[in-house]
TrEMBL record:
Keyword Transferase: yes
A molecular function GO annotation: S-adenosylmethionine-dependent methyltransferase activity
Name of the molecule in the record: Methyltransferase
InterPro entries with a match to the protein in the record: Methyltransf_11, SAM-dependent_MTases_sf
Residue ranges occupied by any Methyltransferase type domain in the UniProt entry: 49-140
GO BP field: methylation
Amino acid sequence: MKGQEWYQAAEVAEEYEDKRFSGGGRLIDRREKRAVLDALAPLDGKRVLEVACGTGRFTVLCAQQGADITGMDISAAMLQEGRAKARSAGVADTLEFMRGDAARLPFPDDYFDAVFAMRFFHLADTPAKFLSEMARVSKDHVFFDTFKRYSTRVAYNWLLPMGSRLYSNAEVEDLLDSAGLTLRNAEHDFVLPYGFYRKLPSWLADPIRDADLAVGETPVGDAVASVSYWHAHV
């Protein structure tokens, strides 16, 4: 997986959310959380797995919505941040964090009602294998996001030391088919890439996001979006 050593560094985990979701980055955090809840809610009483849970942003959110959720990640440092977040939110006793490999999920078939992964597939070196494992352990929902190949993300990728894996819609549809999944819904968003918003103060990010959304609502909006949210079922 791309950036695996970088991702597991303690200093990266400690600064991860402040660098990505403060200032203009809060708009990304808000949109991602809405995407997860729109796909998986109602969560009360559902058994859920989050793959590559990182610092537990979504794990804690789902626990607060009543899910019986497990957050799994390869980074011990990220999991430590997630456990601290769960304690602060008062849900430490209602969720589980565990270290594990997304290519070999340590669960039986059909164990969860829903399985999801955010900010993961752009790092995946074997996306078909990861998605097949997610499908295997889910009875119903599988949800994930990708960065789009034909978008402003291409230019942003040139600035990154390790880059990101970018996907065309057709490639994701092929991955879904290979994993035995049927697409329920796909949403495409953010004409401007995430990295742009993270550099902006809140007062400037808000009007730019409004303009971004306006473009997204036009007939070309989906074609020029940089992020896709994929909701499938087994």
